[in-house]
Amino acid sequence: MNRISELRKKLGLTQTRLGEEIGVSQQTISKYEKVDENISGDMLLALSKFFKVPVDYILRKDEEEQQREQDNKREIMELYRDMDQYNRDTWIIIGKRLLGGQLHKYNEDSIVEKRLKE
After folding, report:
1. TM spans, by residue (predicted)?
2. Cα dist. 24→5, 20, 32, 109 in Å?
3. Considering only the top CATH level, what class is 3-59?
């Protein structure tokens, strides 16, 4: 969850209501909350004033959160490097399923069949 979502929920606001308060649509608020969208300077200032927080607070994760994220990435890469190709393929399939994504690059059946033949 990003800072905009966090701040909005703390105030008990819907995306629609926040959009009305700062003059944008609910879809725009949703976009800002889902991705690290390039938010204009004017919009950052409006959000900063509305939530009564510094612009930096909206843009940046705190140091502890950044460190935790870096540690997790490092651990994931170490685990991945230690795997054989079969387990790497399997891990990617499972990860995509956990994220609710579609399998575009990998055809799960062909990977499993290929491994069974080996």
Report:
1. none
2. 15, 6, 11, 45
3. mainly alpha
